């Protein structure tokens, strides 16, 4: 059963600095009560018409999505685990030899217990949970958390098996890690902080540009890395653009390189058999 922990929501969530407050528009009056509850959580308001500019959430038959009101024809941003490219990959079956799975060390039994400290739209966490890992997701941005919680709820209703292994927390991962309940809880901690968007790149799809506008850059990612290094029982995995500098200048133990991204792996505790961290094709730094 999917668990959504909305612990200390008002205290722990990062205020949406880049957006004053994100209004919610409803497709039909039947969504009013739900929209009002969400508006209270977000400190925003429910509108019956789309604003002429800025970003807004929209609640309707297909759940919650984020709209760019300056570009009304653009595709909205929605968390959808069963549709689009992610759904296609899920139906085809995720593979343990994918870069993230190798960086996390998804093999053997039991599989690593993972904290996705920067959950975002939940794609990486969903892949790891689909491969059998228990994954806790932390998302501190209130609007992103709302979108993700909505996507997880719909996927649970659709009966996607991975959802039983996913638990969403509405809090800052650094705070989560210093909660005594988290001690010894995670074998692997995954970080994928926001980095400055590649300017005008056609590779960045419009819904993702909207995501960048909403969240901005995670300037405190180095602090989160320090927290993660002090708590992960086995390793910390940091997702970076392929040619980006190391996060906070910290040199990883090894890395896995794809065409556009790199996973830097920081081994926090040497395993008894060193071969277990030397999968085929890895590149030692
Ligand atoms: C690049 S996105 C992550 C995308 C994600 N890996 C995916 O597969 O969809 C980064 C997200 O991490 C969140 N974040 C950054 N630092 C955080 C922290 N310390 N605690 C919780 N969430 C954090 C941001 O709000 C943002 O939504």
Helix content class:
25-40%
CATH fold name: Rossmann fold
Beginning-to-end CA distance, first to last residue: 40 Å
The set of bound ligands, ions and cofactors reads: S-adenosylmethionine
Radius of gyration: 19 Å
Global shape? globular
Taken in chain order, the helices and strands follow as EHEHEEEHHEHEHEHEHHEEEE
* Domains (count): 1
Largest sheet: 9 strands, mixed
- The CATH architecture term is 3-Layer(aba) Sandwich
Q: Going across the biggest sheet, name each strand in turn.
A: 1-8-7-6-9-10-12-11-13
Average of per-residue pLDDT values:
87
Q: Please write the CATH class name.
A: Alpha Beta
Structure characterization notes:
It is globular and about 55 Å long. About 40% of the residues are buried. The N and C termini lie far apart (about 40 Å). Strand 4 and strand 5 (about 65-70) form a beta hairpin. With about 280 residues, it is α/β, with parallel strands linked by helices. A nine-stranded mixed β-sheet has the order 1-8-7-6-9-10-12-11-13, with helices on both faces. It has helices at about 10, 30-40, 85-90, 100-105, 125-130, 140-155, 175, 205-215, 220-230, and strands at about 5, 25, 45, 55-60, 65-70, 115, 135-140, 165-170, 190, 235-240, 255, 260-265, 285. The protein has one domain: 3-Layer(aba) Sandwich (Rossmann fold), CATH 3.40.50.150. S-adenosylmethionine (SAM) binds next to helix 5 and helix 7.
């Amino acid at each position: 059963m999917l668990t959504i922990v909305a612990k200390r929501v008002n205290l722990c969530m990062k205020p949406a600095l880049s957006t004053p407050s994100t209004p919610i528009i409803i497709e039909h009056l039947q969504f009013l009560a739900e929209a009002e509850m969400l508006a209270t959580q977000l400190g925003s308001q429910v509108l019956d018409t789309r604003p002429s500019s800025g970003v807004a959430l929209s609640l309707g038959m297909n759940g919650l999505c984020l709209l760019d009101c300056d570009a009304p024809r653009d595709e909205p941003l929605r968390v959808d685990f069963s549709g689009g490219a992610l759904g296609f990959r899920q139906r085809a079956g995720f593979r343990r030899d994918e870069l993230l799975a190798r960086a996390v060390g998804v093999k053997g039994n039991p599989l690593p217990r993972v904290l996705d400290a920067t959950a975002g739209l939940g794609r990486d966490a969903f892949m790891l949970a689909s491969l059998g890992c228990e994954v806790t997701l932390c998302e501190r941005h209130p609007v992103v958390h709302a979108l993700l919680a909505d996507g997880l709820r719909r996927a649970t209703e659709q009966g996607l098996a991975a959802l039983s292994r996913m638990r969403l927390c509405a809090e800052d991962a650094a705070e989560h890690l210093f909660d005594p309940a988290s001690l010894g809880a995670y074998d692997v901690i995954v970080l994928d902080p926001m980095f400055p968007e590649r300017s005008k790149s056609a590779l960045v799809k419009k819904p993702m540009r909207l995501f960048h506008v909403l969240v901005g850059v995670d300037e405190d990612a180095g602090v989160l890395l320090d927290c993660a290094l002090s708590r992960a029982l086995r390793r910390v995995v940091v997702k970076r653009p392929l040619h980006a500098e190391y996060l906070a200048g910290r040199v990883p133990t090894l890395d896995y390189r794809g065409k556009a991204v790199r996973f830097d792996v920081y081994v926090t505790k040497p395993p008894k058999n060193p071969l277990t961290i030397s999968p085929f094709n890895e590149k030692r730094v």
